[in-house]
User: Fold these one by one.
Assistant:
Number 1:
Amino acid sequence: MKLLSFDIEIADEFELKPGEDLLRYAPFHIAVAAAVAPGGESRLFYSEDANGKPCVEMTREKARELLQFLAGRQEEGWQLFAWNGLSFDLRWIGHNAEDMETAGRVALGLYDPMFQFFNQRGFPVSLSAVGEAMGIQQAKLMKSADAPKEWRRGNFDQVKKYVIGDCEITNQIVEQITRRRLIAWKTRKGTVSSEPMPRLKTVAEVLREPQPDQGWMTGGGMKRSDFAGWIPRHLLAEPER
């Protein structure tokens, strides 16, 4: 089975305060996206002006090209992976492409290890926390909040390397989860914890499982609908193909 991880970087620049809801600043526009296969295909998606210079924001046409590329790979039998891709990447790809139907269908077939982890433990975990705990030597090249700033400053190559790097890290984490049958992460206390993950599941499979147990959490936490609530409801009711 062929694997492909993808990631987007947004064009919107803002300062997120501690504990603040990211969606306060939505809807988001895309600056650049990447799709990377382990040891193979690597593609970048961004819009250019008449002089060939990258645009600040991806056009609707380019976003549709990106979405159709992902849908096409999925239809060809590729396994698509994205870290928090259900809640974020595919939602805003669909929004920018003005095609939430296709984005929703791709999302149901997506493998999102972060969403699967959330459904088992009741809280999200970052790519960097997992990468560090699972021994991934490749480090993130910048903070995600800095990508829009650098893109707007014209540091296009730096942001391109960053978005490709996050895809490469995701691929390496997927390989480790598959081999070790667990997911490990570095906690806020600096310790390493792990959670069994015998196999990776599609979003559709995870959504058929019970809601996560969050009874131990003070004040509750994120809900599963926060991740999947954007998918058109009729798609959620369709039998799996």
Note: Residues 72 and 78 are 9 Å apart (CA to CA).
Number 2:
Amino acid sequence: MNKTVLIIGASGGIGTQVAKDLLNNGYTVIGTHSKTPLSIQNITSYQLNLLSNSSIKDFIKKIDNTNLYAVINCAGIVEYEGNSIERDIEIWDRTIQINLSSNFVLAKYLQSKIETNGKFIMISSTDAIYGSALTASYAVSKAGINSLTKSLSLLFKDKNISVNAIAPGWVNTRMISDTGEDFIRQVTNINPLKRIAEPKDISNLISFLLKPESSYINGQIITVDGGYTNQDPTLLIEEDAI
């Protein structure tokens, strides 16, 4: 196939699955990690600190001679606010930088390295359509991704690089492991498909977006949530009352 894909955050639950699937599909894969080195065979691995724009710039220099078919940013964090004002502001700054700003910085530095008709894919969230008292920074960062997707699709138009974002609902990764089994059981029960997503569900869509068959999909935020956002949650209360 001889196509090189860069996966930012290849050490996470979704990123690891994407890396493995793309390697199996014949792509050459470059992956980044923040702390723990990647243990995936046949992947070129780099450490990258998304909190630092200078770190991003240094990383770009390391792959300066690489021609990229696609860039997929799977990196992201979520932290609960509400402990103190100063702590909440720290969480805000860190979350916005990693989840949102890093995508813009990467796009600016990598635009010239992505080949014509290439792909740029980001991870949004269904949280982007809601507000949250305890994860305001996360929700805002993902809403920003939705807007950035539209803007980058225009910025990249001269090279026909398509830009899309995937908005998962609940996915079975380390990010939700602290919520507890009882909570996950409740989330599963209100989903029309009676399950939460596996990383493979997200990876399958990414694999499709890399194919020529997806060439006319551009500037879109594609929800992958099993249908749980199809219903106003207050209607569940109404159904129980009736």
Note: Strands lie at 4-8, 28-33, 44-47, 68-73, 114-123, 162-168, 221-224.
Number 3:
Amino acid sequence: MSKYIRCERFESGDELKLVVISDMHVGSKAFHEDAFLECRQRIIDEDMYVAFAGDALEGKKIDSPHFNPDSLRPRQLDIGKQLEYFCDLWKPIADRTVLFMP
């Protein structure tokens, strides 16, 4: 989920464009990758900043009672692979990130 917040905050009249993103759950089949990629491109194209408010990965360990391989993407069954993919996705906007809570 992301939310676009428009705020005139500087005396010069310049705007700070901030997108708040959370609950990506990379690794889950429910992760809406296309929506994230569109949002990421908008951040780049429109010179925005981003705050990430948590839940980057699906992140359930295999020995967790909540681990369900049927709910995960086949190539992202473990946390390490989820993290690696998340980093690849985030890299193009890493320099635009002002807050990150994994």
Note: The longest strand covers residues 2-8.
Number 4:
Amino acid sequence: MQTPIQYVVFGGTFDPVHNGHLITARALADKLGYDCVNLMPCGDAYHKAGVSSALHRLAMLNLALAEDSKLILDAQETERSGATYTVDTLLKLRQQLGDNAHIAWVMGADAAETVQKWHNWQTLFQLANVIVVARDNEVPVDLSHWPAKCVTESIEFKKQPAGCYMLLALEPVAVSSTQIRLKIKNQETVENHVPQSVIDYIEQHGLYRGEN
């Protein structure tokens, strides 16, 4: 019997991608036993102002992921015009991968608390599962109102095509893209937080020197 496809999506703006993104994605793959995690940069970041172009964000991700076989770039949201909604991305993935594929969308606890504000949010659980990454020092988030089943065992979770969620505690990584952009603007070093190949790209293209 053929094993169902497992497709894990770690979405974000990635402006720029940093070590916190990479460490979290790797830890998730290792802890839950996934072969790989797909990093998916958003296209039109309608909810954020001053975001770098998809061209730059894709280039930086390509550089950061070049030497890690467990982390893969999925650029499909940047290839669509207009606002990109998670539910539309998941619908496309479901059509591509089939009804039996295990699809898991990764989000932080902060996003989980506000997911009801997302476009057509309840349909997310008809199309995929959700992995909520909660830092060890965060207060547990109450998701009892979600139209989905909480699963605690990774083996059981990975058997589910959709309709379930899992809370995953990981070590906190004290870095954010906002902090990195500010440091670069102030001409401070970010070498401990960003892959060197990405730093070189930022310097080459003069990114984050202005207001963003």
Note: The two ends are 51 Å apart (CA to CA).
